[in-house]
Amino acid sequence: MSASISGPTAEPLIDICDVAASYGNVRVLSGINLSLERGSFVALLGSSGCGKTTLLRALSGFKSIDQGDIKVAGRSIARLPPEARGMAMV
Prior knowledge:
The chain is mainly beta. The protein has one domain: Rossmann fold (3-Layer(aba) Sandwich), CATH 3.40.50.300. It has 1 helix and 5 strands. It has a 5-stranded mixed sheet, covered by helices on one side. The protein is globular, with a radius of gyration of 13 Å. The two termini are about 25 Å apart.
């Protein structure tokens, strides 16, 4: 899954770079890249079990990633606990 939304700013607000995640020995995300600029609206679409919720859980800190990085406003948050990320998931 790769997506890039372009606009007037040079640095994306959210930048997911080469993220991979697993549940046990099962790799559920691999090579995920996504850049989102401030004010953009995005929908994650896909079949059941394709990794949409896992990606959101990784972004919010409720799922650790095996590789890659997640940045918000240029700051890496991939190793921060959920309560230190300044975001929520409902």
